[in-house]
Write a structure and sequence with these properties.
single chain, 412 residues, mainly alpha, Growth Hormone, Chain: A, 82% helix
Length: 412
Amino acid sequence: MHVLHDYLENIRRFSPDARRFLWVSALQGTGHGVFQLFFNFYILSLGHQEGFLGLLISLPSMTALFFVLYAGYITDKIGRRSAFFLGGILSGIAQIIMLLLPTPAVLILSGILRGIGMSLFGAATAPFLMENSSPSERTHLFSFNSGISTMSSFIGNFAGGALPAAFAWLLHVDAQSSRAYGWSLAMTTLLSLLALLPILKLRPDKPNAQRKIVSPFAALQEHRGAMVKLLLPSLIISMGAGLLIPFLNLFFRSRYQLGDGTIGMLFGFGSLGMGLAILIAPILAERWGKAMTVVVTQGLSIPFMIVMGFVYNLPLAIISFFMRMALMNLSGPVYQTMVMEESDESTRTTAASLYNMIWNMGRAISPSISGPIQQVYGFDPVFGLTIGSYAISVYMVYRWFVWRRPRATPAT
C-alpha cells in the first residue's frame, strides 16, 4: 500500500501542462493504433510489393534521421508548443495526401512529411516533459506518458479492427480493398487534428533570450563520449526491431491466416498490456536502478521472441507476443529519462534529438532490408537477426552501466 500511495502521490504532482500533454499522447496513440494496423494492408491492397512497402515504412524514419538534429535546433528557436503544433500539422497533411492521391510519388512525399513531423514532435517531447517535472515524479511522468500512448493504441487496435468491414458495408466494396483500408486510415487523420486542441492550450515557452541555445553539432562534439555509450545500445535495438516489429501484422496473417479483426484485437490487447506494464517502470527503477531495470526487462523478452519465431504454435505465439511487447517496451521511458538526466538545459533538446536519431536510424534502414528477406526466405531469418540484436544491446547496457557500478540512487 505504501508503494501505491507514493505512486499516486507522484501522479498528483504532474503540472497542468504535463496533464494537457497526456491528452495529446492519448489522441495520437489511438490514431497510431489504427495506422499501425492497416497501413501495411493498405499499401499492399494498392498492388505494391513488400519491397516498396519496406521502403515506405523506412522513409519517415529515414527522413527523421537526416532532419532530427535540425529539428532540435528549430524546437529551441520556436518553442516546444510551436514545434508540437507544426509537427502535428505536417503529419496530418501527410496522411491526407496519402489517401487522396496514393500514387508512388505521393506516398513517398507523404512519408517524408511524416518524418519531418515526427522529428519536430520527438525533439520537443522529452525536453518538454523534463521541464514540466521535478526529479521526484520525473520517471513517473515519462512512464505515464508512454503508458497512456500505448494503452490508447489498444483502443485504436481494438476498435480499428472492425473499421474495414464497416466501411466495406457502407461503400459496397470488399473488406480487404484499398477503399475500405483507406477510409479506415482516414480516422487517424481526424485524431491527429483533434490532438492539436490540447496543444494550443499549452502555455507559451519562455522567451528564447532566457534559454541558452547551442548548435546541435557543438553539443554533439561536447557530449560525444557519454552519448556513444548511452545511445549505441538503442541503435542496435532499433536495427533489430525495424527488421521485425513493423511486419508483425503480416507475420500473423501469413503464418496463421488470422483475419483483420482478429489481428486488430491481438494488437489491441498487446498495447493494453504493454501500457499497463510501462506504468510499473518507475517502481522497478526505484528498486533496481534505471540501468538494471533495462537489463532485466529487455533480457527477459528474448526467450519469448524465440518462442514466437520458432515454435509454430498459435497460442504460444500469442502469449509470447504479449510478453515480449510488455517486457521490451517497459524500459523505454526509463532509458529516455536517463538520457535527459545526462544533459543540461542548453543541450537537452539536442540529446533528445540524438536519442530519436539513433532510434530512427535503425527504423530507417532495417525495414527496407527486411522486406526483400521476407519475400525470399520468410520470417525465420528476420526473427534470428532481431533476437541477436536484442542480446547484444542487453549485454552492452549491463557492461557499461551495471557491471562494477553501484546501484543508482533514486531521485528525491
